[in-house]
Amino acid sequence: MKVLVAVKRVVDYNVKVRVKPDHSDVDLNNIKMALNPFCEIAIEEAVRLKEKGIAKEIVAVSVGPKEAQEQIRTALALGADRGILVETAEKVQPLGIAKVLKALVDQEKPDLIILGKQSIDGDNNQTGQMLAALAGVSQGTYASKVDVAGGKVTVVREIDGGLQTVEITLPAVVTTDLRLNEPRYASLPNIMKAKKKPLDVTTPDALGIDVKPRVATLKVEPPSERKAGIKVADVAELAAKLKNEAKVI
Amino acid sequence: MSILVYAEHDNTQIKGATLNTIAAAKAIGGDIHVLVAGQNCGAAAEAASRIDGVAKVLVADNAAFAHQLAENVASLVAEIGKGYSHILAPATSNGKNFAPRAAALLDSQMISEISGVVSADTFKRPIYAGNAIATVQSSDAIKVLTVRGTAFDPVKAEGGSAAVEAVAGGKDVGVSKFVGEELAKSDRPELTAARIVVSGGRGMGSSDNFKIIEALADKLGAAVGASRAAVDAGYAPNDMQVGQTGKIVAPELYVAVGISGAIQHLAGMKDSKVIVAINKDEEAPIFQVADYGLVADLFTAVPELTKLV
Predict the structure, then answer these.
(1) How do strand A138-149 and strand A152-159 relate by DSSP bridges?
(2) Is A168 part of any domain?
(3) Percent of chain B with pLDDT over 90
(4) Contact A218 B122 (CB under 8 A)
(5) Nearest Cβ partner for B245 among A124, A178, A242
(6) Min Cα separation B256/chain A (Å)
(7) A235 and B309 Cβ atoms separated by less than 8 Å
(8) ipTM score here?
(9) Which of B43, B85, B212, B300 is the most buried (most CB within 10 A)?
(10) A131 belongs to a structural domain
(11) Residue B224: how many CA atoms within 13 Å on its side-chain side?
(12) Which residue range forms the structural domain that includes residue A45?
């Protein structure tokens, strides 16, 4: 079985982003970039399928700037076999990414496509579902457990209020939730080996995909700040304030 | 302009998130039609027809929609939705699952989790885990949106008398099957709909100790939440998690117990009306957003508070 994993270069999750003074966007100058945490989980799941003998080949793909090669190399160091970068300077939106990935799916014909449920920059949570729609295949989103057998994938999904289990037919798209697995760290020898693994570079144009944004960002502002309130001396004062001042109990 | 709102329901009742979504539709302005898709969902459709501000209810009653499988629901929404200027769904796990799929079928760049309506084509939404708010403008003919419930006050569930109309369309795409569901059973209110939420963090120390949080919650008629740290430590199940990667809540009163206040947690609760923090570490960042902070040992303070309220 062939597995395609899509990965994204995003701001490191430990960085607290700030809005630019002109409110045009967030300020990403000199900020540490990393593999999106949900994409790391996607790669890990693919590698585990390979270790179980279910997956034969893992292809890691990314749509983004030249620098996104770093994140593909990380995926290769974690166990992917080869990479494809669809290079573009455009900030491609989920529908555009899904169209690019659909073109790659047509070329590569994977049985299973694994993506993170969302990236921690745009928080859109759309690409996997959109790709499944465009490719006309089933989807298992927010996966916390994945079992592949007999041309089907049983996916335990994290939903509001609990868990749902669905059985979807391959080829399929699965998107990862946080508790699906705990990604490994790349070892130094594997990082060295990853440098020699093949990484092809193409462009949206070469694939015949228009990735121009459909949604314009007019303004980016900091959220309204909450002011710190007061410290109360003891539980009695707290209860009194909640009853008489805030009037919430 | 006409707006299609996808109803979240359990076949008999309309869920609260639908009312917040209709409020967002009202802010956009136009005829509001509600789509109820399910199996034997006539009662839910009746309930939808009584919602304030709804002009028409469309019912798609079909076994294919019984478990809200995204493949089947998206095919229906893309078909029915062609005649509308906007398609809105609640940003619940269900809405987030099918709406992007429907949007792609309509070749529309969806806008996720709007928290404000500026005009019919311009919306506000949180990005970077709520650390920035973007104002975005859609150029698509059909705008597909999911709505963050806590950002819109719900419309009234009663007072309307919309016509109910059966619609055909959509089908069992045949590539997915519902196997089962494990939902947490609780007599407490639902986390995202509760007036008061009491949450515990890593400071609780064990799942057993969550009992003191539950005692306070039951006295207050509150829902129980947890921080990601508490969930990761195994003190609480993951459907109780409040935060950017869990539930977004905005109750009238949020009581954070033994929670340090990581950014990811704050993103899920900072729109609460009144925030109380109880923590023995007076440097904990949670105090920077709390209206009332109490520096104390939670194991004595919380039982004492339970007695006093």
Answers:
(1) antiparallel
(2) yes
(3) 90
(4) yes
(5) A178
(6) 13
(7) no
(8) 0.95
(9) B212
(10) yes
(11) 25
(12) 2-221
d(CA A238, CA A155): 46
CA distances from A200 to A87, A206, A223, B308 (A): 10, 13, 40, 66
Q: Do B196 and A129 lie within an 8 Å CB cutoff?
A: no
Contact B112 A125 (CB under 8 A): yes
Within 8 A of A133 by CB-CB distance, chain B residues are 74, 100-102, 104-105
- Among chain A residues, the shortest Cα distance to B112 is held by A124
* Shortest distance, CA B119 to any CA of chain A (angstroms): 13
Task: Identify whether A226 is part of a domain.
Answer: no
Q: How far is B273 from chain A (nearest CA, A)?
A: 9
- Say if A152 falls within a structural domain: yes
pLDDT at residue A121 above 90? yes
pTM: 0.93
A95 to each of A100, B109, B225, how far by Cα in Å?
A: 9, 6, 34
Instruction: Indicate which CATH number applies to the domain containing A42.
Output: 3.40.50.620
Q: How far off is chain B from A193, nearest CA to CA, in Å?
A: 33
Tally A–B CB contacts below 8 A.
241
Inter-chain contact B305–A130, Cβ cutoff 8 Å?
Answer: no
Beta pairing partners, A61 = A6, A84
Residues 6+ apart with CB under 8 A from A116: A6, A7, A8, A36, A37, A38, A39, A40, A41, A42, A128, A175, A176
Give the total number of structural domains in chain A: 1
pLDDT tens track for B91-126: 999 999 999 999 999 999 999 999 999 999 999 999
